């Protein structure tokens, strides 16, 4: 049986969940223009903000109620202006001009929405809902200012993104208690699956812990197919009578989307097998690769 | 056409919501950037509809919602929040919100929610 998840593995899992949630929100602001880099664990005594450029917009959101820690979204001024423009808050000013209040507010709101999505993703890992604070957004000149504003934590991760080719970064400040909780959640999940996998092909031989990526790739995830979707006011959904017809957004012959743990990864054609069960023949896969995990 | 109070701690979101409402033929009669201001503005303006963010400084949207409903049990309040957790939605509805719109949202979705609240 594989060994217990260690702190580094827990940090990487936390970083990957958060990064994926954030990439999906950025994708809504800049469709097809978002690239996500690798998650890295920041080690050593130095500031996690050591590479901060002067004029960087930093938007920090803390987790409150249930877990502690913070996520800080860092965007150099050019990236911040680009993101604000994508959101519809572009200012008719010279590129070198300071960011306007509206542009800063747009980046702050983007961070709010990204961190809410991240909180949702972390909540799935921990099995509980996570609350977030209102974002703190500042234009910073030095790493020292970031350290003073956002504080320190025993652990930190970083992920780099490109939005329209412009770089931005997420730094996660992670208290020890949070790491332990993520590790416990991963161990519980792996333990639930381990009993079922013990006699199957590829089962661990008990010779030692598997590496991080193999461990994570072996975890069973929920996969589902989506026929279509629509948007309804909550009051409508609560009062729909039996027999109601709800129109979805795609034709009956259109491919269905396949999701793994909330992430769209493929599409396919809906079929019925000889036993009368629904099956799906895959006809396309998402081009983006999952973020590679550093060791 | 409705008289609407827009509440969000982000100036950008107040602009997005206000622009959507104005384009939809409604009148934005006031704005607030936290829960304290929201309750004060509601009391002063008595809008037809209030759009209310949840995560705000000073006083969050759920606290403000409870106070607004206490002032006027027939108040029409739409929650607009990035937090779409089931517990938040349920709590909002229990406190008296008419609807819950999750950010990011399309202007049509917001206008539909306003229309539903006014019906």
CATH fold group of the largest domain in chain A: Chemotaxis protein chec
The ordered H/E elements of chain A are HEEEHHEEHEEHHEHEEE
CATH topology of chain B: Rossmann fold
Largest sheet, spatial ordering of strands of chain B: 2-1-3-4-5
Helix fraction of chain A, binned, reads 25-40%
CATH class bucket of the largest domain in chain A: Alpha Beta
Could you say what the CATH architecture of chain B is? 3-Layer(aba) Sandwich
Mean pLDDT level of chain A: 78
Number of helices of chain A: 7
**Helical content band of chain B:** 40-55%
Show unreliable segments of chain B: none
Distance between the termini of chain A: 21 Å
Features:
heterodimer, A: 295 residues, alpha+beta, Chemotaxis protein chec, Surface presentation of antigens (SPOA), seven-stranded antiparallel beta sheet, B: alpha/beta, five-stranded parallel beta sheet, 20% strand
Structural description of this entry:
- The complex is a heterodimer of chains A (295) and B (119).
- Chain A is built from seven helices and eleven strands.
- Chain A is α+β, with helices and mostly antiparallel strands and 295 residues long.
- Chain A has two domains: 173 residues, Chemotaxis protein chec (3-Layer(aba) Sandwich), CATH 3.40.1550; 75 residues, SpoA-like (Surface presentation of antigens (SPOA), Roll).
- Chain B has one domain: Rossmann fold.
- Chain B has a five-stranded parallel β-sheet, sandwiched between helices.
- The chains are: A alpha+beta (295), B alpha/beta (119).
- The interface between A and B is medium-sized, with 30 and 29 residues.
List the helices and strands and how they pair.
The complex is a heterodimer of chains A (295) and B (119).
Chain A: H1 7-29, E1 34-42, E2 56-64, E3 70-75, H2 77-86, H3 101-126, E4 131-132, E5 136-140, H4 143-150, E6 155-163, E7 166-174, H5 176-197, H6 212-217, E8 223-226, H7 234-239, E9 256-260, E10 263-272, E11 278-285
Antiparallel strand pairs in A: 1-6, 2-3, 2-4, 2-5, 3-7, 6-7, 8-9, 9-10, 10-11
Chain B: E1 3-7, H1 11-23, E2 27-32, H2 35-45, E3 49-52, H3 61-71, E4 77-81, H4 86-95, E5 99-102, H5 107-118
Parallel strand pairs in B: 1-2, 1-3, 3-4, 4-5
């Amino acid at each position: 049986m594989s060994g217990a998840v260690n702190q580094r593995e827990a940090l990487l899992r936390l970083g990957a969940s958060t990064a994926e949630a954030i990439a999906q929100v950025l994708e809504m602001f800049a469709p097809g223009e978002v690239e996500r880099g690798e998650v890295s664990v920041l080690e050593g005594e130095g500031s996690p903000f050591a590479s901060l450029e002067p004029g960087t917009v930093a938007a920090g959101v803390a987790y409150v109620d249930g877990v502690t820690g913070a996520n800080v979204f860092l965007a150099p001024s050019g990236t911040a202006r680009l993101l604000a423009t994508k959101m519809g808050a572009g200012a008719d000013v010279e590129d070198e001009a300071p960011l306007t209040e509206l542009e800063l507010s747009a980046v702050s709101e983007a961070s709010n929405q990204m961190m809410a999505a991240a909180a949702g993703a972390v909540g799935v890992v921990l099995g509980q809902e996570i609350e977030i604070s209102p974002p703190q957004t500042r234009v910073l000149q030095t790493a020292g200012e970031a350290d003073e504003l956002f504080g320190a934590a025993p652990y930190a991760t970083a992920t780099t993104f490109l939005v329209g080719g412009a770089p931005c970064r997420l730094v996660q400040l992670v208290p020890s208690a949070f790491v332990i909780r993520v590790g416990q959640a991963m161990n519980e999940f792996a333990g639930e699956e381990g009993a079922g996998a013990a006699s199957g092909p590829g089962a661990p031989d008990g010779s030692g812990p598997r590496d991080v990526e193999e461990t994570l790739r072996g975890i069973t995830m929920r996969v589902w197919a989506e026929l279509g979707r629509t948007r309804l006011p909550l009051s409508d959904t609560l009062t729909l009578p039996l027999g109601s017809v709800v129109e979805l957004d795609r034709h009956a012959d259109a491919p269905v989307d396949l999701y793994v743990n909330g992430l769209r990864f493929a599409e396919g054609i809906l079929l019925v097998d000889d036993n009368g069960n629904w099956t799906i023949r895959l006809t396309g896969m998402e081009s983006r690769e999952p973020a590679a995990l550093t060791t | 056409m409705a008289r609407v109070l827009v509440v969000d701690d982000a100036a950008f979101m107040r602009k997005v919501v206000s622009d959507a409402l104005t384009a939809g033929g409604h009148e934005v009669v006031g704005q607030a950037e936290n829960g304290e201001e929201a309750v004060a503005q509601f009391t002063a303006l008595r809008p037809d509809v209030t759009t209310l963010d949840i995560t705000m400084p000073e006083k969050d949207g759920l606290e403000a919602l409870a106070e607004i409903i206490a002032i006027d049990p027939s108040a029409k309040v739409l929650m607009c929040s990035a937090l779409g957790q089931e517990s938040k939605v349920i709590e909002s509805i229990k406190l008296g919100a008419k609807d819950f719109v999750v950010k990011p949202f399309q202007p049509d979705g917001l206008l539909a929610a306003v229309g539903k609240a006014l019906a």
